[in-house]
Amino acid sequence: MDTSEQEKGEYALIRDSEDPQLGKFDKPLPCFGCGIGWFSLLLGFACPLLWYYATILYFGNYYHKDPRERAGLAASAIAALVFTIAVLIAVLVIFL
Q: What pLDDT does 66 receive?
């Protein structure tokens, strides 16, 4: 961008000419910077329903908004699966 365009009051994009997506993920993740998935995984040990919430987000392709969320959401989905299997086994042992 040359100085004549700057004098007109037009905005200049700040990005790297070699990598245009460099500044795409400069914003911190929600939930104290760890992302919804990891936050749900940690709080899921206190309230397992958060694992199911993160699983719905995972299968709803929420991570397309920010790919950094994918690992945490997948971990929460796995935790929900393990918890569900553990509950089913416990119910079968108790009632059979």
A: 82
- From first CA to last CA, the distance across the chain in angstroms is 75
| Type and span of the H or E element at 88 | helix 70-95
d(CA 24, CA 5): 24
Ordered DSSP codes for 27-54: SPPTTTTTHHHHHHHHHHTT-THHHHHH
Angle between helical axes of 49-59 and 35-44 (0-180°, round to 10):
150
| pTM beyond 0.85 | no
Per the CB < 8 A criterion, the answer to whether 40 and 63 are in contact is: no
CA-to-CA dists, residue 60 to 1, 9, 63, 70, angstroms: 40, 42, 8, 11
